[in-house]
Amino acid sequence: MQYHAHALAASGADVDVIGYEGAPLPKFLTTDPHVTVHRLAEPQLRFRVGRSKLLYGVAAAIDALRAALRLGVTLLRIPKPDLILVQNPPTIPTLQLAWLVARLRGARLVIDWHNLGYTILALRLGRRHVVVRLARWLEMIGGRLADAHLCVSRGFSRFLADRFKLIDTPDRPVRVLYDRPASAFVPIDRIEREQIRQALFVRLGIRHTGTVGFIVCPTSWTADEDFDLVIDAVRDLEDRIRGWEAGRSSRRFPDLVILVTGEGQRRTEFERRFAGLPARRVQLRTRWLEPEDYPRIVGSADLGLCLHRSSSGVDIPMKVVDLFGAGVPVFALDYGACLAERVRHGVNGRLFSNSGQLAELLFDVFETFPGESSELDRLRTGARRSARPTWEEGWSSEARAVLMLEQK
After folding, report:
1. Domain housing 341
2. Residues contacting residue 149 through CB under 8 Å, at least 6 positions apart
3. Taking CA atoms, which of 176, 239, 255, 380 is between 20 and 30 Å from 40?
4. Using an 8 Å Cβ cutoff, are 28 and 6 in contact?
5. In 3D, which of 343, 323, 346, 321 has the Cα closest to residue 334?
6. Does a structural domain hold residue 335?
7. Is 278 within 8 Å of 238 (Cβ atoms)?
8. Against a cut of 0.70, is the pTM above it?
9. What angle in degrees, to the nearest 10, is found between the helix axes of 117-125 and 130-144?
10. Tens of pLDDT along 313-334?
11. Do 201 and 115 share a domain, yes or no?
């Protein structure tokens, strides 16, 4: 949504960005005179009710009412818009409220589908829960009320047509707008990569005496990311390394650093669990990276790791394309055909299904690192080829006409 705002502003539009407060915004938004930012406090009662499904449902309803009030007041206070662009999820009450305000103020409503809200809710309550069924119905009705749609994969477009009956027509278009890397994500040469990562290791308190492989795992710490898997994989990998080195005294496996970036609700919980791991050869760290630092840190990595376990099976995590933009190959948790639209096994990354497969892949790719890293070099070449078109190029060809009512 930040990229949408930047692209619209660059096209001459005045843009009001409404979002939950939290992480700092990039300077390309905060310094743009055509962009006004409105921050809303995020209702978080549902995160403090423990494991009870009943209490969670009640708390989620209260949170939705609070969010509706804050969002409604803000939407009515901003200058009269021509277009309201909504990212989904969050779904309730965002879709319904945005539609109401759009009709009251004579604006078009466009939904940018990144995932499905009801499938995320199902992670907590189960697919058959009455609240989840209600949420699915509200999401479908909310979608049908919009004037146009963007979605992140061809599989998502087929889902919207088959399940929600959102058919691509000239007056109500449904277009695929792939997440793509912004122009800030570019490959970095070997010498600069080493300088960046060594400075980062000092900040992270990483001590090492030899070769280090650097893996970056961008995340939002959400419920649809499988951190248990990486914890199990690290334990498995430590055992593999220990057995391999014991087979011959001259063998030395490189140290590995896995940096999990981002901020979110689950970060504190997993930081405690990461700290309990036997950090002999594989060290897990967490860090929030400033928007201006993030592309350079990503570009300094040897490998990217994606732990996204899609709740819907039709979304594509944006972290993958950021890594490709920086020329970094990706090992990604496989959740189906939609992911394969971007991550091609053996070309620009590898796909795995469980912790054992991830441990095996990491062992194989770093066994001869950095001396004989032909596998990593080949995947890096594939990642660089997957970086085009950029976000700006894709937005101009796929989204501009939908959002700004222009003819291609």
Report:
1. 190-385
2. 110, 111, 112, 113, 143, 160, 166, 172, 173, 174, 175
3. 176
4. yes
5. 343
6. yes
7. yes
8. yes
9. 180
10. 999 888 899 999 999 999 999 9
11. no
